[in-house]
Amino acid sequence: MSDRTALVVASSNRAKIVEFRQLLSDLHLDVVAFSDVVQERVSFVEDADSFEGNAVKKATIIAQVAMMLTLADDSGLEVEALGGRPGVHSARFAHDRATDAENNAALLAALSQVEPEHRQARFRCVLALVDPWALPGAPPLIAEGTCDGRIAREPRGGGGFGYDPLFIVEGKDKTMAELEDAEKNAISHRGRAMAALRPRLGALLERRTRDAIRICSD
């Protein structure tokens, strides 16, 4: 039996699972999707008006079902010329069941009359970590990260997912989809949010290890 701690990611997006495994590869964790450990169908509506609200809701629901340490993120794109849209509706900007290609097309259409100097945007990610075995009433651990850039005129690059092919990273002449994984993880909104969360996640894992040793020695 593995002595590694399982971390359930409250997402069905396999690309996100891969990113989290890369971001946490040096920690003593087995990063798994909730569909790998929860057999029953779990549904939740991302109806909060903030990224934090949606992340906390997802992490709390999955943690209660799986009874395992659970991480959720809610992330999206905020475009200045669109008043911050699509924001929390990024995954369904075109329509409720939109594909990445449909959302990208909808974004380009919405910005078709916007000049390059006014196409500034920001990726935002909020992470919520819930430990179902924590003391009653213990709040989830929250961390946020952002990445500034601008929206291209057409998709570029074959990597990433979501709006990555349209998002030109500030200070670079590359879209997120043109970056190598390590470079993207170092500067992305999700990478920065995880960097902010890591000290508290590390402390939680150390505490769990001490508790397990104490229980075994009793």
Query: What is the string of helix and strand elements?
Result: EHEHHEHEEEHH
Which residue ranges are poorly predicted, with pLDDT under 50 across at least 5 consecutive positions?
Answer: none
The number of strands is 6
Radius of gyration: 18 Å
Structural class of the secondary structure composition? alpha/beta
Strand content: 15-25%
Helix content: 25-40%
Number of helices: 6
Set down the secondary structure blueprint:
Elements: E1 5-9, H1 14-23, E2 29-33, H2 34-37, H3 51-66, E3 70-79, H4 100-110, E4 120-130, E5 141-151, E6 167-169, H5 181-187, H6 189-217
Parallel strand pairs: 1-2, 1-3
Antiparallel strand pairs: 3-4, 4-5, 5-6
Helix pairs in contact: 5-6
